[in-house]
């Protein structure tokens, strides 16, 4: 099972295993067909290939009727060629034409037409439509999911603007005499991502061990015709069991709230299962985007968690945050410790060599005497 290296709840992109299995099954069935053959096997394959190709052409004709009658102008701008490209696979058409003139015999047409009729009846009754996993794979591969749009919008419209300016905002905050954020390595925006997509407006109402302290200095940017648009970030204190405060810049991923609201609207036709899948894809897509962004590097940290059992623990959220903060401190400590070792080695190698001079008289290597 392929899982995300950061969290086993996050699925990896689908691999080619299904295609490999299809090839394997096809070869196995071909072997069985060769064993039980009662007719020319090559001719049987040719007829079967033609049926498959011809059925695809018939499906294209049915789709073309809809596109020509109702969608021709708004979707294709009255271009017949564009409509034909959308409805037909031209490789499929060429295969069908070649097989028709090379291998198909007159007595084969009754079987061909009967089989194609069954295919079209199944298609019209929606019995042979694409599986849910096929639709999901197509949407993921072509970046057509709701999560992809939300992740890119969140990055381009917000994170790409504020993350490169975040450390300057924290520095300005500290220059005013606020010393709660002493370690610069932890000057990051900690983004909460609950899988349920339920996001509270005030974190302290969700968990009493979380306390709002102050807002960082505003980040002001001219954006999309709005002069001096203001972006804010909030500083929180998260208390452990010993009531010791741990400070961090914290907020929730607001696009998840959109997913939650969509699941509550019947017109969106967005189920709870769809919401969970899209929340995971949102995390994976946004992480991939930010991992490849030089401007945002080392200025964020995701806190993704499954809050399905959060109601049983009133301090569930603070414990999740503290776990990530402690892990972050360990990572930063190990990195800083490694850099110090490398610095010491570099200094030792960069020192000028020292010449060691002895005042003793020179002696032969065989000068040592042994006594019996």
N- to C-terminal distance: 74 Å
What count of helical segments does DSSP give?
Answer: 12
Low-confidence stretches: 339-344, 346-350, 353-358, 365-372
Return the string of H and E elements: HHHHHHHHEHEEEEEHHEH
Strand % is 5-15%
Arrangement of strands in the largest sheet: 2-5-6-1-7
| pLDDT averaged over residues | 85
Question: Helix fraction?
Answer: 40-55%
Most strands sheet: 5 strands, mixed
Tell me, briefly, the overall form: elongated
Main structural class:
alpha/beta
What's this entry about, in short?
With 372 residues, the chain is α/β, with parallel strands linked by helices.
Indicate the topology.
Elements: H1 17-35, H2 41-70, H3 72-76, H4 80-87, H5 90-102, H6 109-124, H7 132-141, H8 146-175, E1 189-194, H9 203-206, E2 210-215, E3 219-223, E4 226-231, E5 234-239, E6 245-252, H10 255-264, H11 272-291, E7 300-305, H12 316-350
Parallel strand pairs: 1-6, 1-7
Antiparallel strand pairs: 2-5, 3-4, 5-6
Helix pairs in contact: 2-4, 2-5, 2-6, 8-11, 10-11
């Amino acid at each position: 099972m392929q899982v995300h290296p950061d969290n086993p709840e996050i699925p990896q992109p689908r691999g080619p295993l299904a295609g490999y299995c299809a090839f394997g099954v096809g070869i196995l069935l071909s072997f069985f067909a060769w064993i039980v053959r009662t007719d020319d096997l090559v001719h049987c394959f040719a007829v079967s290939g033609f049926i498959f190709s011809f059925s695809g052409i018939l499906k294209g004709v049915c789709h073309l009727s809809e596109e020509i009658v109702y969608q021709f102008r708004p979707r294709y701008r009255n271009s017949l060629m564009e409509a034909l490209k959308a409805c037909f696979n031209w490789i499929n058409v060429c295969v069908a034409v070649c097989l028709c003139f090379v291998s198909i015999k007159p007595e084969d047409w009754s079987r061909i037409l009967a089989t194609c009729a069954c295919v079209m009846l199944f298609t019209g009754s929606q019995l042979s439509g694409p599986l849910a996993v096929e639709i999901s794979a197509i949407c993921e591969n072509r970046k057509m999911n709701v999560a992809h749009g939300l992740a890119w919008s969140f990055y381009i419209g917000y994170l790409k603007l504020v993350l490169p300016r975040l450390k300057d905002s924290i520095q300005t905050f500290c220059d005013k005499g606020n010393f709660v954020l002493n370690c610069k390595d932890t000057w990051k925006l900690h983004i909460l991502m609950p899988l349920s997509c339920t996001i509270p407006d005030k974190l302290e109402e969700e968990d009493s061990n979380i306390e709002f302290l102050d807002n960082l200095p505003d980040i002001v940017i001219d954006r999309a015709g709005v002069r001096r648009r203001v972006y804010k970030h909030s500083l929180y204190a998260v208390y452990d069991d010993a009531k010791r405060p741990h400070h961090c810049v914290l907020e929730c991923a607001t696009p998840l709230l959109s997913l939650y609201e969509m699941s509550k609207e019947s017109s969106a036709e967005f189920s709870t299962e769809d919401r969970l899948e899209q929340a995971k894809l949102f995390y994976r897509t946004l992480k991939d985007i930010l991992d490849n962004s030089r401007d945002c590097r080392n200025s964020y940290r995701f806190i993704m968690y499954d809050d399905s059992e959060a109601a049983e623990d009133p301090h569930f959220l603070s414990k999740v945050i503290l776990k990530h903060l402690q892990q972050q401190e360990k990572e930063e400590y190990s990195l800083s410790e490694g850099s110090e070792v490398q610095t010491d080695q570099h200094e030792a190698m960069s020192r000028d060599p020292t010449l060691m001079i002895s005042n003793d008289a020179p002696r032969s290597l065989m000068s040592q005497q042994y006594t019996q």
